[in-house]
Amino acid sequence: MYSTFTKLVGWIGILCLLTGCVSRPGLFDSTEDDLAGGQTVLMAQLAKLPTVRRITAWPLPDYMTGEGLTIETAHYRIHTTAEDILILRQLSFFLESAFNAYQEIGVDAGPGDLLVVYFFQDRQQWEVFTRRWTGRQAGEYLNIKAGAYYYHGACVAYHLGRGANLAVLAHEGWHQFSDACFTYRLPAWLDEGLATSFEGFRWEDGRVDFDVRLNAGRLMALQQCLAEDKWYRLEDLLRLDAGRVVSHAAGQAQLQGASQTVGSYYAQLYALARFLREDAFGRRRAAFERMLVDGREGRWPLEGELREEAMARDTAPSRRWNAQVGPMLFEYYFQQTPGQMEAEYRRFCAGVLKSVRFQRRP
Known about the structure:
By secondary structure, the protein is of the alpha/beta class. Helix content is about 50%, strand content about 10%.
């Protein structure tokens, strides 16, 4: 959805959350027989799942070796070489659950075509695919140490471990959903803030319960922001994109002379999305949802080049566009400047942290 470089750093900070989850009993239990055998056994087991509409062999691209499966659900087409029966059983159910959660924030819509996910068994396969899929930009994506990315309409991930897989896919899946369903692209603060909202979840009573409060990694980073005063002012946060933050963190840019970090950036956007929906018993929630619906329907107050760039989905947005549109939408829908809201926002962050108890490792 957002600029190519912005998308590739969407993984930063996600890896520290790795929220634990309890496997759903029954549907996700496996026997030794399930784990024995090859592709035929996997296909037979997965075909039993209620979310799976169709499952076929996936002929891998000619530059790759091995075999794979294509799993189709109501909204996704998943190409995978994964061999872990548990994660494969969870994958289709989880993605459909995430899709429903994306709609519940106020955008009741769906894309016309199935959303594509590539999920590889290991990093080696992921790297081979990434080199071809991202072309000249492959070097940037291959710098991702562990995680996933969204590029050219598809989420591309590899097996990191069950909790990590799903958290990363939920984050990148939001970018994919918004790219497919919105008329206008989203500014970075809104896009990344919402993506972090889906990283926290639990398995409960045979379903996936997405709960923004369960995001331990973002909450810990937010606590560090306040404790060490690594704080982006709200007016700066609305103009920034992840690529610019990464450059700053690498010492290539300076912002107020402070030592803000990438983790701080994502943690504050996580908190900002919560603030706009939760603060003061949700008094800004209606405006927040109206902003999203208007973005989907193409009703934002954009004109000329700003509107054209907002609709030019086949090209990456410029940082100039993001820096202009981010604050503009904020002030238009919430009827306050970032400076006027700064103190309330910071108090909200402190209040959220008071209700969280962190346990130190021995």
